Every structure is written in C-alpha cells, then in structure tokens.
Amino acid sequence: MEKKPELSIVILNYNTKELLKKCLESIERFKEEVPLEIIISDNSSTDGSVEMLKEEFPAIPVYIGPNVGFSKGNNRVRKVVKGRVVLFLNPDTELNKGVLKETCGYLKSDEKIGAVGCKEVLPDGSLDKDARRAFPTPWVGFTHLVLRLDRIFPKSKLFSQYWYGYKSDTDIQEVDAIQGAFMLIKKDVLDQVGWFDEDYSFNGEDIDLCWRIKEAGYKIIYYPKVEILHVKGAAKGKSKAWKHKVPLKDRLKMRSKELDAMAIFYKKHLWNKYPLVLNLLVIFGIKVFKVIRIVGIVLSG
Fold first, then answer.
1. pLDDT, tens only, 189-230
2. Domain holding 125: CATH number?
3. Are 18 and 97 in contact (CB under 8 A)?
4. Which is nearest to 246 in space by CA: 301, 179, 182, 295?
5. Torsion (CA) 69, 200, 172, 137 in degrees, nearest 10
6. Residue 183: pLDDT band by 50, 70, 90 thresholds?
7. Please, which pLDDT band fits residue 251 given cuts at 50, 70 and 90?
8. How many Cα atoms are found within 13 Å in the side-chain-facing hemisphere of 80?
9. Using CA atoms, how far apart are residues 208 and 218, in angstroms rounded to an integer?
C-alpha cells in the first residue's frame, strides 16, 4: 500500500518553464525532509513547460486547464491533494535546506496555527518585504500606496504597518498575511475556509485567504529561520529579466486585475467597518491608481 504523503506541494505554472525546472530541482534536493507529493497545475502554457515536465519529471502529475488566474488554477487540483499539509509554491522560487522540515514542523507544533510563511529573498539578496503583510485597511493602504510613507519612515509603527517595518524581519511573529509565493497551510483549515476565492484572478487571493483563516480563529505565522529565493513577478512580467517574455496586452490585463482585486477585497471584508463616505473615497482612489498604473505600463513599453 502506497504511503500517504505528509505534504502536498502545489505549483501553478504559466509560461515559466526555465524557472519551474529550477524550482523542481530544488525540491528534489530536499525531498527527504518531509514525505511529499508534487502536483503541477498548468494554465495552458505555450512555452514548452508541459513538454519539459513530461521529459524531465515524468512522475509528477500535471493538470492542464485554461488560463483562469491564480485562484481557479490552484483550486483546480483541490480534489487530488493527499497531504495533511498543503504548500502553495510559485514556480519562480527555489528552496533551501531545512525549509520544508522546519516550516512543516512549526505549522504542526500548535493546533491554532493555520498557515506559515518563510523568509523570501530576491535575486539581488534583498528581502522580499511582501513575505509578511498587514491587511490593507484605509490607513495602511493610504500610507503604503498613496503617500508611500513606509519608504520614508521604514521603522515607524504609524507609517510602516503594511510591511511590518517596525518589527524585526528575523523574528518569528504572527502577521495578518503571508505571500502566495510560499503559503504552507493545514489542509483541514483550507477545507474549512474554502480554499482560494475565485472572485480574484491575478492578485489579492493570498490576502483574502489569510483573512478567512484568521476569521476562523487560526494564526498566520511568518517564520524567518529558513528562507527561499524568489525571482518575483516573472509570470506577470514585473521582473525586468522576464518583462520581454510577457506581451504588453497580458501585462496590462494582469496589472488591471491587481487593482480590481483591491476593490474586491475592500468590498468583501472592510466595507461594513467604515463610514460610507470613506468607502467611496477608497474605491475612487483605487480607480485613479489603476489608471495611473496602466498609463505607466504603456509608457514604459
């Protein structure tokens, strides 16, 4: 009888063949740390990703569907996941020694912990600050997106709440949200809250899921004792090295959906917590910000 895996690693891929291969090779190096299975969900890649998988990783099951975004793409494999713990891992990441063992161990150490994220490092060696985030309330969004005060006062508890700049990035801590690039979650918690909300397409899914996990009474933990490499933004054309690989039309669509996600999250979870006038100002501000972003992408090519 085949032994049931402890961990299911779910990787959603879309035209990131080269990065996906490196990601899978990194998992292969440390697969003995935790009994695991790998599941690939592919959003109809056209860059040879599926062919590469069949040739070089024939044992890994691949589930192919239309390019329906992050939520639906990950939820596509919901019924085939066998592990008691699920890791949603971006193909533009590479694992290091101890990541799987330590994060899984910490997740299982407390029944009230629902999800764990680790430290994420960008190719230039700097910290990927999105690995830990606060929920985007009007004040947090205003200081982070509009005034950008967290760049001016990076250690301020008042102005630098979104990235938790006032807290050490080397300490284990409870946070509002972790990033979709590395989200380790107990499967029973996932089943309880309903996996990813499919109203989102290309952004906001991770924060929304974290909101619902916390609403269900579980903790979200940032665990920086281990780290991964995160190329970041490859599939969306945000990475300069990968910008040329993503057509302008697709980049515009995805960045537009990112701003739409802000409005979706606000209406779902924050609308009833604030006065109507403030709510309308927030939604108007998101629309203005969306126009600015799109114009910026067009002008930059």
1. 999 999 999 999 878 999 999 999 999 999 999 999 999 999
2. 3.90.550.10
3. no
4. 301
5. 150
6. very high
7. confident
8. 15
9. 14
Q: Are residues 63 and 104 in the same domain?
A: yes
165's tokens:
């700049």
Question: What are the tokens at 220?
Answer: 């979200």
* pLDDT exceeds cutoff 70 at 244: no
Residues 130, 252: one domain?
A: no
> In whole numbers, what is the pLDDT of the chain averaged over residues?
92
pLDDT at 1: 44
**Within a domain: 94:** yes
Range of the domain at 217: 7-134+175-235
Of 153, 141, 139, nearest to 261 by C-alpha is 141
Task: Tell whether the model's pLDDT for residue 299 goes beyond 90.
Answer: no
DSSP 162-226: TTTTTS-TTS-EE-SEE-TTEEEEEHHHHHHHTSS-TT-SSSSHHHHHHHHHHHTT-EEEEEEEE
With the C-alpha atoms ordered 140, 141, 143, 148, is the resulting torsion angle positive or negative? positive
